[in-house]
Amino acid sequence: MDTIFDSIKDIALKIDNAIKNSDLGYSQSSNSSGEDQLKLDVQSDLIIEQTFKSVPSIKAIVSEEKEGISVLHENGTYTVCYDPLDGSSLVDVDLSVGSIFGIYEDTLDGDGLVASAYVVYGPRIELVICKRGKKPIHYRYMGGQFAQIGEITLNDKGKLNAPGGTQQNWTPIHKNFIDSLFKEGYRLRYSGGMVPDLHQILLKGGGLFSYPATSDKPNGKLRQLFEVLPFALVYESAGGMAIDDKGGSLLSLKPSFVHDTSPCFFGSRYEIEALKKAYGV
Ligand code: AHG
């Protein structure tokens, strides 16, 4: 599996270069969820596919930007599901964005998820790699290489609150709960890019990131295979929790379609237990 992580480091440098130097306009196409694709989305997707083509252990790939599963190496072991450039609409205002990778063996669901990784493209390039059963490891690109910074461990209680979705579309239960955290002293930290927002909560010790079921998106917005499951593994491995709105672990998710979404909540133990109480689950 380490060759996959080496290739992700290579990908991170190439996509960072594309972000800094490429045209920011829209392409002529839309992705499988009907969203307009930026040229950068298409370019990032191509960079990943080209790089993974030279990694024999990768049997197949599934991209957030494409419809189905593409087989790369019949005798490979892993299927890598990825969001090439999450939050790409933030590039034109120069906010941080990211790439997310879920590495699956046998089944494309929480049980089959054996590792995950994400890259943050910000003032620096950061990388977090998480193998199942181990703590997530934080790397930072400096001096021409990815230097290991250390393991990530969440505190039992944090201070940050990152509430996704449009407030007018929240349920009263969700609105009351988010308000209660602010009344407790939590600080709002939400950029609209899940990678930097979740990364900030992880590195600042804890808090809550939520993307609930809303009246316009009853199944949430974030995609299970490319976004929700990879971060669920990182949060649970860091000592936090990751649940859906029924109180079940997100790692129990079994998508029936590769682009399925789910309401999702990631946080330290205190905030997730409080959320379960508020939701009555
Ligand atoms: P996109 O890649 O289309 O910009 O979407 C970003 C995702 C995710 O990164 C972020 O947390 C969420 O959408 C933000 O959605 P809201 O604006 O609805 O909160």
TrEMBL record:
Q: Which residues of this UniProt protein bind Mg(2+) 1?
A: 64, 83, 85
Pathways per UniProt: Carbohydrate biosynthesis
Q: Which GO terms describe its molecular function?
A: fructose 1,6-bisphosphate 1-phosphatase activity; magnesium ion binding
**Residue ranges of every copy of the Fructose-1-6-bisphosphatase class 1 C-terminal domain listed in the record:** 156-279
Major location category of this protein? cytoplasm
Name where it's found.
Cytoplasm
Positions of substrate binding: 86-89, 190, 221
Q: Which cofactors does the annotated protein need, by name?
A: Mg(2+)
Catalysed reactions, as listed in the record: beta-D-fructose 1,6-bisphosphate + H2O = beta-D-fructose 6-phosphate + phosphate
Q: Which residues belong to any copy of the Fructose-1-6-bisphosphatase class I N-terminal domain?
A: 6-130
Q: Which UniProt keywords apply?
A: Carbohydrate metabolism, Cytoplasm, Hydrolase, Magnesium, Metal-binding
Comment on bound cofactor:
Binds 2 magnesium ions per subunit.
Q: Which GO terms describe its biological process?
A: fructose 1,6-bisphosphate metabolic process; fructose 6-phosphate metabolic process; fructose metabolic process; gluconeogenesis; sucrose biosynthetic process
One short Pfam family name for this protein? Answer: FBPase
Q: State how it assembles.
A: Homotetramer.
Q: Which HAMAP family match?
A: FBPase_class1
Q: What is this protein called?
A: Fructose-1,6-bisphosphatase class 1
